[in-house]
Design goal:
The structure holds two protein chains of two kinds. By secondary structure, chain A is α/β, with parallel strands linked by helices. Helix content of chain A is 33%, strand content 25%. The radius of gyration of chain B is 22 Å and the shape is globular. The chains are: A alpha/beta, B mainly alpha.
Chain lengths: 444, 498
């Protein structure tokens, strides 16, 4: 696929590297020559120095065609204009990164489409959704529901004392038919396990199961259930406001913000939340915001280090659920290994939004989720695709992917060696970075 | 297990991923063996005794390559900057080592130093030869020398990237940067293998057209092939002992001049030109300078010839000097017959052209006109600043302001370039080579021109030099071809330490 990315900021360069590793043709355009030179010299991509919203540059870039145009500059109006021009010059699909909910509201989809913007990516909104899911299922690291909850994929960290520790996967599979361990994240690296791999303390297991078995899993992993009610957010960022909007009917929010001026705007955006002015790292502020009685703590300041440290402090004080926004990709794997609960990264979320488009031009049938070095996708099986040719055990699947579960006629079921996948099934695929083309091949 | 290097800093104890390097080197050797089939076929066609050395070398190279690529199983496939530099430099040496074997065991019967010098001179498109003029060598050896130049002209690594899909990655990207000449490296297409394929396609097409044109003239097919390979790669090996000059044909000179000229132009520019972007050619400062420089030199040469009374007919003031100018500026090193009698001023101009060579991103050698342009513009700014110290000046190339870091890099390059030439000259004179010849040989090899050593009157070919000098010159050729940094970085202690 020939993909043009406008904007070599954090999201843009992350996408360029990621998609180049997936063996796509990447052209990256930005006005910052230094940023480009760095990427151009080290990655298998072509960079163009110029304004991404200029007709001249885009005409040059799109001369040999463009399957996907991704505009991820910091300015949302530039993105929309760039998409509009690109669409008119022949880009097949366009995606714009936006900063306001208005652009993705259902009633505005038609005018957006008319302007030439096929899809929008709103990383802050995706992050807020992840956070709210994390608050609803506080004992898991990840909780993804597929097909209205017919199949659930949960990421659970094994702590000391969990009954599963030391067990081989094949033993686990024999005694518990309701679970499938799709992947294990161990020491900063995702692996797709085989039957004789053992589960160890500190692993994050990615397990698929059907809804009725959720409590069994919680017991097996040695977790206790609790309901989150009081939530303290550090940093009144855009994500914080979106989290409030998505969850204020279920949770009670308290927002600590350092900036006096921002504190005056927040009550307008989040009318039911309590706003506290102060530095969330200051013990006096904790007292004032009743951090010791909170059920969850979410750190959303721009500093990854601040967020990680604040979450550790909150855990120390007895807050059971903590979520940290970590924007430095280098820190994500590290932070996930620490005792801080969930880690949010806007770039990874934006990346999975784009992966979804790569896997299926019609985004409604594919669903993608980002982990730091692996992806999960829900894909519809088309007639005649390779995957339907024989039962799973005879498919000779590459080691970098695994079929986690499938949904047939609205019913979720796990996939074993004898399962024969049929056209029309929706399959949950778990794959490591760099394997997207293998997935594509399997499903076409 | 695939992991993204940027996000997972796993502890890596080895500084260089040797298994991966050797494996890629193995593939490359199999490729070289495939190219050895060309001389083998020629030997068979002419029924020459050299078929045996060629068959044996090809088989040996293929076997060694096969074993390396099959037996070595790297634990991880990542190639970082260090591997990129090291592999690129290593591959050129390995190619020369295997490429020299036919020179030792075949009809030339050269010694080790001579053979290595000849092979390196071929691959780096220097075109300096240790074979005594008039020595009878087989057609197979002739075509093998030409093939080496042709392969080295566009670049061994570049060819590999085009054909081995596994190098279509960041690792291949780094090797591309280590091999392709120029200050910055523009890509033509999004993926590096596509860029490499496009460049090779242009190169192959130009070669085929040239072979056809030469064949249509007085040359036979074999000579056309050899000269085409030597001209487009700006290498300069000829099948005739007296050089191209032995073809008195104006037609041959005109055709060769045109294609040597093309060989000295940035191939990405040729690509754009072929795509109909003529405006780009006119706008390109480097290309314009290249053309003007050639025209200016041509005028000086012709005037000089007239003044010295060397006029022997219309050819002697038109095509002969033009041929010579293009041949030198593109670092080809073909010489027309009358060159010796043109006098010292011509020689001085030749030095100047040898130093700068053609455009970056072409097959030519030298320090490249791009750098000359940077240097001149920067010097002009510095002089201007003496009068107006507050003036904000910048170096502009193709209408774009160039960052001062890039200007510094160019100046550092030129300093190193001159220092290495001088160092080579000093080392050679320490070995007993007369001073002028020592410096000239060093210069000629560093700039990959390979003009015969006889210009300064020392000997008719490089065979006169002591063995040690040949190794020094071989290294200079490699350093010049890979534009210094790729080779020099390997000598830097930090390269081998973490």
């Amino acid at each position: 696929m020939r993909i043009v990315i406008a904007g070599a900021g954090e999201v843009g360069s992350h996408l360029a590297k990621l998609l180049s590793n997936e063996e796509q043709d990447i052209l990256l355009i930005d006005e910052n020559v230094e940023k480009l030179a760095q990427l151009d010299a080290n990655y298998n991509i072509m960079t163009v120095d110029g304004n991404p919203a200029s007709f001249r540059n885009l005409r040059e870039l799109l001369r040999d065609g463009c399957d996907l145009f991704i505009a991820v500059t910091p300015s949302e109006s530039t993105n929309v204009v760039a998409c509009s021009i690109a669409k008119n010059l022949g880009a097949v699909t366009t995606v714009a990164r936006i900063n306001h909910y208005g652009y993705m509201a259902p009633e505005n989809r038609a005018p957006m489409k008319q302007m030439g913007v096929d899809h929008v990516i709103y990383p802050e909104y995706l992050a807020a959704q992840e956070i709210v899911t994390a608050l609803e299922h506080p004992w898991t690291r990840y909780w993804f529901e597929f097909h209205d909850g017919a199949i659930i994929l949960a990421g659970v960290k094994l702590r000391r004392g969990a009954p599963l520790i030391g067990m081989q996967l094949k033993e686990f599979a024999m005694t518990n038919h309701a679970f499938h361990v799709a992947a294990i994240k161990r020491h900063h690296e995702s692996i797709i396990p085989r039957g004789d791999d053992r589960m160890e303390e500190g692993d994050i297991l990615y397990i698929t199961f059907t809804r009725e078995h959720a409590d069994d899993l919680r017991r097996l992993t040695g977790k206790t259930d609790f309901k989150v009610r009081r939530v303290v957010i550090m940093g009144g960022s855009k994500i914080a406001i979106r989290v409030y909007n998505l969850g204020h009917d279920r949770f009670k929010f308290k927002i600590i913000e350092n900036d006096r001026d921002k504190c005056h705007i927040l009550p307008e955006k989040c009318p039911d939340a309590e706003i506290v002015w102060g530095d969330a790292r200051d013990p006096d502020v904790w007292g004032e915001s009743d951090l010791d009685t909170a059920d969850a703590f979410i750190a959303l300041t721009p500093g990854a280090e601040t967020n990680i440290l604040a979450c550790m402090t909150a855990k120390d004080m007895g807050v059971q659920r903590t979520v940290a926004e970590v924007e430095n990709l280098q820190f994500v794997a590290l932070a996930e290994g620490m005792n801080i609960g969930k880690v949010i990264n806007k770039k990874l979320l934006a990346g999975s939004g784009i992966f979804q488009l790569l896997l299926d031009a019609d985004a409604s049938t594919a669903k993608c989720l980002a982990l730091s070095d692996a992806e999960v996708a829900e894909l519809e099986v088309k007639k005649g695709s390779r995957i339907t040719e024989s039962p799973v055990k005879d498919l000779k699947l590459p080691r970098s992917l695994t079929l986690a579960a499938l949904i047939r006629d609205g019913e979720g079921m796990l996939i074993g060696g004898n399962t024969h996948i049929q056209a029309g099934d929706r399959v949950l695929v778990f794959f490591l970075q760099g394997a997207i083309h293998k997935v594509e091949r399997l499903f076409s | 297990m695939h992991t993204h290097p940027a996000y997972h800093h796993k502890r890596e104890h080895r500084i260089v991923n040797w298994p991966m390097l050797l494996r890629v080197a193995g593939w490359l050797m199999m490729m070289e063996a495939a190219f050895m089939l060309i001389p083998l076929a020629v030997c068979l066609a002419y029924g020459e005794s050299d078929r045996l050395p060629f068959a044996a070398t090809a088989a040996g190279t293929a076997l060694a390559g096969f074993l390396l690529s099959r037996r070595i199983k790297p634990t991880h496939h990542s190639m970082a900057k260090r591997e990129g530099f090291l592999l690129t430099a290593m591959v050129w040496v390995i190619f020369s080592i295997f490429g020299m074997l036919p020179f030792i065991f075949g009809t030339p019967g050269l010694g080790l130093s001579d053979a290595f010098f000849e092979a390196m001179s071929g691959f780096t498109t220097t075109g300096a030869s240790v074979l005594p003029s008039g020595s009878a060598i087989s057609h197979g050896v002739h075509i093998w020398r030409a093939t080496m130049q042709w392969l080295g002209g566009m670049g061994i690594i570049l060819f590999t990237i085009a054909v081995i899909p596994m190098l279509n990655s960041s690792g291949g990207m780094l090797m591309f940067n280590a091999e392709v000449t120029g200050i910055t490296h523009d890509k033509l297409r999004p993926r590096i293998s596509q860029t490499a394929k496009t460049l090779w396609l242009i190169y192959i097409s130009l070669t085929l057209v040239l072979v056809a044109l030469l064949w249509a003239g007085p040359m036979d097919l074999f000579d056309s092939l050899c000269h085409a390979f030597g001209a487009i790669s700006t290498g300069g090996y000829s099948t005739q002992s007296t050089g191209v000059g032995s073809y008195a044909s104006v037609y041959v000179k005109v055709v060769l001049t045109v294609f040597m000229f093309a060989g000295g132009v940035n191939f990405s520019l040729i690509y754009r030109g072929l795509r109909g972007d003529i405006e780009e050619l006119q706008r390109n400062d480097v290309f314009r300078s290249y053309v003007w420089l050639i025209l200016a030199m041509f005028a000086l040469f012709s005037t000089n010839i007239l003044i010295r009374g060397c006029y022997t007919g219309w050819e002697s003031v038109t095509i002969d000097p033009l041929f010579q100018v293009v041949s030198v500026i593109t670092s080809t090193g073909f010489t027309p017959a009358a060159f010796d009698s043109w006098g010292p001023m011509v020689l001085a101009l030749v030095f100047f052209m040898m130093f700068f060579g053609g455009c970056a991103g072409s097959t030519s050698g030298g320090a490249k006109i791009d750098r000359l342009l940077f240097l001149i513009k920067n010097c002009r700014n510095e002089v201007y600043r003496c009068i107006y110290p507050r003036a904000v000046m910048s170096v502009r190339i193709n209408g774009r302001v160039v960052s001062s870091e890039l200007v510094h890099k160019v100046i550092a390059f030129l300093c190193l370039y001159m220092m290495l030439i001088a160092a080579g000259g000093v080392v050679l004179s320490a070995m007993g080579v007369p001073v002028v010849d020592a410096f000239f040989s060093s210069f000629s090899c560093m700039s990959n021109t390979g003009l015969g050593a006889d210009i300064t009157g020392y000997g008719s070919s490089y065979e006169m030099l002591p063995d040690a000098a040949k190794w020094v010159l071989s290294m200079l050729m490699l350093t010049g071809r890979l534009e210094i940094f790729t080779v020099l970085v390997l000598l830097y202690p930090s390269f081998w330490r973490k």
